[in-house]
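**User:** Hello, beginner here. Are you able to go through the protein record under this note? It all follows right here:
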Amino acid sequence: MTDHAIVDLARRLPQLRLLSEPGDLEHYGRDWTRRWTPAPRAIALPASSDEVQGIVRWANEHNVAIVPSGGRTGLSGGAVAANGELVLSLERMNRVLGFDAVDRTLTVQPGIALEAVHGAAREHGLLYPVDFAARGSCSIGGNIATNAGGIRVIRYGNTREWIAGLKVVAGNGELLDLNRGLIKNSSGYDLRQLMIGSEGTLGIVVEATLRLTDPPPTSQVMLLALPTMDALMDVFALFRSRLSLQAFEFFTDVALKHVLAHGAQRAIDGDHPYYVVTEFESPDEKTQDAALAAFEHGVEQGWISDGVLAQSDAQAAALWRLREGITESLAPHKPYKNDVSVRIGALPVFLHDIQTLLAREYPHIDVVWFGHIGDGNLHINVLKPESLSDADFIAQCEHVTKLLADTLHKHGGSISAEHGIGLVKRAYLESTRSPAEIALMRGIRQVFDPLGILNPGKLFA
């Protein structure tokens, strides 16, 4: 049967690339969650801001929902198209548009991969500091949509700290030029910041001006083995007081087991319940001596069982693989993922509370913890047993997530630290946001997207 609306879109934008083959619909209609059957109406791959505007205006006229799509590496169902939506993929809009040496900014299209942004910054002797394991496949547009964090938030902050300006097509088809790269701008509401973390529900980013910074001084990487969970915060406080930390990442022995089975190399002999990968500035021997002194003090206090200091870039990369390879190593086990955060000061009690909760609710199921202790962000991965059906497993995990959300509410935390709400977490939004906040968020969405065509069902129903 002819889809007259899609025919009209092709007529209006004759250069627009449109896909409708079953394999394309499946590929572009899902993200890494794999929990929903993709069923988009078609896939549009614009090559310009004008085409994006044309698509949004067409969607308003035909009342067609749009799901913006980047690298689709999300873990919350934010890029899922399961109800006949048009997927608007930005993968063809992947160029560097300009570099300003005075302002030290890089202007890019939203479909460019994070790794390509890193490379472009290096070409100018500078650094775009947001970084995480999916750097080769995630896109800047998706990073902005979820305010992505990653492994160096402790030093550099989240994505929003590095966005100097945005061009966005709002849900009504208007092109907004937000902040224009200004450092100081007190002329009313900062709509740029409102767009960051909005998960494509207010507008579609078509251009981003990124702030760059100086490359960090020479750094060193250390892997630590810890005997107890309580030692995590003691060691973090110790190293933060004596060193300039860039990252402080922890994982459990269960996580190590999976990443070793996936091809990583063991760096510390013996079995230990907790591990930390930390990276710190080390411009001279004095700093290295301070790191070794901190390590020795931790051993004396009983907080550290063993450790290794990388002696080369290759060894540093191998140590980082033990942390960054976890997500990929867990993928075959169909993990149910929680991505939560609390204030760093609330972590000690919160860690005990969720350890008790998870041990009680998942007595015979592997639960893999890892995350960013330095910014209060934990990733909890529940691995599906072969004996459980997908439906039964999801039902059990959602029951536990409700209990986890209650625990987060008690500690003033968030059900989503850096992956967004999407479809997966919208039922738990009230654990993080008050009814008044949610009402205001709905009102803001109505202003930017009056017909509700942008990513409907995401963030809140």
About this structure: Residues 4-90 form a domain with the Uridine Diphospho-n-acetylenolpyruvylglucosamine Reductase; domain 2 fold (CATH 3.30.43.10). The chain has four domains: 4-90, 96-211, 219-327, 334-420. The chain has a mean pLDDT of 94. Residues 390-410 form the longest helix (21 residues).
